[in-house]
């Protein structure tokens, strides 16, 4: 029987943090056994805000290495760069012609990003339509993402339905998969906002490539809540609750067990142990990343092979959509 299809993506910024990892990437890695997995490095999305060309190229390669280091297995899964598969831009154009402006105006990520730019371009506004194309091209069943992508997945679903209603069954309706505990990891320096690579300070996040001392330092200075108990309470103790969720995800122990372990102990003991736990998980990953850095050619070969496999299925769906809408 054919495995369900999973597609997800990550923008090639210079940083991948533990929010990306716990919310999204670790899900993709775990689902490789049960799903047919495609992981896309979204460079077309990256250029919706200005990019330095040399940095974009380097960050794309870096992201590929990081994904492999995280456990995406290129022998089993398809790892590719979005711009290597022209069907994404082509289907996005078609979908743009059926996307009501009002739906894009409501997108909270657009509003956030627009507020951080001095100039806003049409590409940033149309970003969610391209994302819908990414998903729909592969007849995707499952799209594991962090919570910040929820609205975008909803748009992909509604565009698929709209197209199917008007032109007949063409696209599968995808399901977003968002984890309850790790779908929204909060910033270490501000537990009211999500952890973000575009945060003003690098103390907001732990990057997967941060060195152990850097991880210790960032966790030590992470914001805590008033009171002294290591207790889970999202309303009263958002900072400690966030750290507890991170600890639980990296250690595999339920939050309640960790609360028990630190009953009567200080925030500082809790943080020291959390730092060691994160370091233990990230150290092998950093080592694999370093090995891959020594061999640029083999990573490029993986991306080339991934693009060829992705193109084959993407073009099939694009062709069907083009026929349905009446292209000669
Ligand atoms: P990006 O690169 O911003 O983030 C990659 C993934 O990490 C998740 N994430 C988080 N999860 C939990 N807590 C956080 N603080 C946190 N921050 C980020 C994101 O939700 C995402 O799943 N638009 C996408 C890339 C994309 C895509 C797609 C995803 C392009 N096309 C098609 C799915 C399907 C993005 O910029 O993700």
Write a concise keyword list for the protein shown above:
328 residues, mainly alpha, 3-stranded parallel β-sheet, two-stranded parallel sheet, 13 helices, globular, binds tryptophanyl-5'AMP
Description of the structure:
Helix content is 55%, strand content 7%. The chain is mainly alpha-helical. A 3-stranded parallel β-sheet has the order 1-2-3. The longest helix is centred in the C-terminal third of the chain and has 30 residues, at 296-325. The protein binds tryptophanyl-5'AMP (TYM). The site of tryptophanyl-5'AMP (TYM) has 24 residues, from strand 1, helix 1 and helix 7.
Q: What count of helical segments does DSSP give? A: 13
Rounded Rg: 21 Å
Overall geometric form: globular
Strand share of the residues? Answer: 5-15%
Structural class: mainly alpha
The oligomerization state is: single chain
Low-confidence stretches: none
Strand order of the largest sheet: 1-2-3
């Amino acid at each position: 029987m054919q495995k369900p299809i999973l597609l997800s993506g990550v923008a090639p910024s210079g940083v991948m943090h533990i929010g990306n990892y716990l919310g999204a990437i670790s899900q993709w890695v775990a689902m490789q056994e049960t799903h047919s997995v495609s992981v896309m490095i979204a460079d077309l999305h990256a250029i919706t805000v200005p990019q330095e060309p040399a940095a974009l190229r380097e960050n794309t390669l870096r992201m590929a290495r990081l994904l492999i280091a995280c456990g995406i297995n290129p022998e089993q899964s398809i790892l590719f760069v979005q711009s290597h598969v022209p069907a994404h831009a082509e289907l996005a154009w078609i979908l743009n012609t059926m996307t009501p402006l009002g739906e894009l105006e409501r997108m909270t990520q657009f509003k956030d990003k627009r507020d951080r730019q001095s100039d806003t371009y049409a590409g940033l506004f149309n970003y969610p339509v391209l994302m819908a194309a990414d998903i729909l091209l592969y007849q995707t069943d499952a799209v594991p993402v962090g919570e910040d992508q929820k609205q975008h997945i909803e748009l992909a679903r509604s565009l698929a339905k709209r197209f199917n209603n008007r032109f007949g069954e063409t696209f599968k309706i995808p399901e977003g998969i968002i984890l309850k505990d790790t779908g929204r990891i909060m910033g270490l320096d501000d537990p009211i906002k999500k952890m973000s690579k575009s945060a003003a300070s690098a103390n907001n996040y732990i990057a997967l490539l941060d060195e152990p001392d850097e991880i210790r330092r960032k966790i030590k200075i992470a914001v805590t809540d008033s009171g002294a108990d290591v207790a889970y309470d999202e309303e009263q103790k958002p900072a400690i609750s966030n750290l507890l969720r991170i600890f639980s995800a990296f250690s595999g122990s339920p939050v309640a067990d960790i609360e028990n372990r630190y009953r009567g102990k200080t925030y500082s003991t809790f943080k020291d142990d959390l730092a060691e736990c994160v370091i233990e998980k990230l150290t092998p990953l950093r080592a694999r990343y370093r090995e891959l850095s020594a061999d640029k050619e083999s990573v490029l070969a993986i991306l080339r092979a991934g693009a060829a496999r992705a193109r084959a299925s993407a073009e099939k769906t694009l062709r069907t959509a083009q026929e349905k809408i009446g292209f000669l």
